[in-house]
Amino acid sequence: MSHPLHDPRYQRIAVLLTELRKERGLLQQDVADRLDRPQGFVSKVESGNRRLDVIELLDFLRALDADPHGFIDRLFEQPMPSLPR
User: What pLDDT band is residue 85 in, cutting at 50, 70 and 90?
Assistant: First the structure.
């Protein structure tokens, strides 16, 4: 079984967060400043090397001025892989 960090669902979240940041014309440092975290934190999230828990995801979305409901809808626009057994 592969490491959970490499689950394609986490990779999809990372891609969407990166897309949102770029759509808003923000740098990783801008998001980091809004989160009061180092830029490396944002980089690790966007590269898929760091997962976010639910609270962190909500904070990240708030920093991006993104609606959590819209984010989830966007997440499910593409078929999601089956859940691991």
Answer: very low
